[in-house]
Amino acid sequence: MVEVTPKKRTSILKRNKRSRMPAVQESPLFMLKVFVLLVLAVVVQTTISPYVTVLGAQPDSALIVVIALAMMRGPVWGAVVGFATGFLLDVALVQTMGISSFLYTLAGYFSGRYAEGTDPDSWLPPMVTVFLATFVVQVLNAVIMFLLGVEASIDFVIFRVVLPSAVINALLAMPIFVVCRWWLGGEGRQRVFSTEE
Fold first, then answer.
1. Which residue in 39, 93, 103, 95 sits closest to 67, CA to CA?
2. CB-CB neighbours of 142 under 10 Å
3. Is residue 11 part of a domain?
4. Would residue 140 count as lying in a domain?
5. Could you tell me the pTM of the whole model?
């Protein structure tokens, strides 16, 4: 009888040894903190943000939290958190399902990818990332709304919605990033807004 030795199975999810980010098992407490942070961001987005307007634009605190988590944890976390936050927003605002999930997933993933090559102690990359991500999300949202039959002037969309929203979010990025960093207890791939000297 021929004896067959079982081959060692390799996992598809195993990270490459040369990868910059090792695979990390997250604690249940960390997952709970992230969930609470997302729910709080959605509550603020749906209850307080509608009353804060600058030139007709409202801040998007949920998007800033998604970008903060993406920059601290990487692109996969950014995409997952973006999808979950977008889904919660779609449910809370009773709007067309999937639009916010799609846009926030893109923003989270690409923000995490961008953060892989930035200085973790610098204050500038998060502000630039939030500005650009907000700009792209708002433009894509306007295009999707146009395709769904909602018409608006391009001048109005760019100068009264997109640019003011991007500027407001960029200014709010610093305090929201600091709060996210504090709430998550200093865990993270990068030391975004580190206080270490």
1. 103
2. 18
3. no
4. yes
5. 0.79
The pair of structure tokens assigned to 136 is 């792209």
CA dihedral of 189, 20, 71, 36, whole degrees rounded to 10: -50
Tokens of 65: 């939290």
φ and ψ at residue 123, rounded to 5 degrees: -90, -20
Q: Which domain holds residue 47?
A: 28-183
What is the CATH classification number for the domain harbouring 129? 1.10.1760.20
pLDDT digits (tens, 9 = 90+) for 5-59: 555 543 322 333 433 444 456 788 888 999 999 999 999 989 998 888 877 778 8
| Sign of torsion over alpha carbons 99, 134, 24, 11 | positive
Read off φ and ψ for residue 15, nearest 5 degrees: -80, 150
Residues with Cβ within 8 Å of residue 182, at least 6 apart in sequence: none
Name the amino acid, one letter, at 73. Answer: R
